[in-house]
Amino acid sequence: VAFSPVLHGMLYGQGAPLSFLSSGIGIVGKATPAVTNVVSGGSFGLQLLSRNKEDPFGIHALGISGKAMIALVVGRTVVVPALVMSLVLLVFERLPRDPWSRLVLFFQPAGVTANVITVLATLTNQPQGAQMVAL
Description:
The chain is mainly alpha-helical.
């Protein structure tokens, strides 16, 4: 939207014809962190209720190995942020000149949060996966 003056004028500003869309998206965006935290907290609570001594983290109950778990952790903490950073570097010349805006664009998408993965697992009807990620 910031790169298209026509679209920016339609969504933002005084008398913009589609300002109701940008206002609605802003309101939903403000509620998103709270909703994802509630879903993660609920999944974590369910994980704690179903915990046993032989498999305290629930990894074996999910049917994955320790190596698969390490691959998931490395992918989420190293690979995905590296891909996002490389995409940002590809469009570096088109970024705003303001240093604070650049800082936000570099660090905001730096990694996939556990909350988002928990919500996605819950939405795809994978409660055990959501519980494992919440842990």
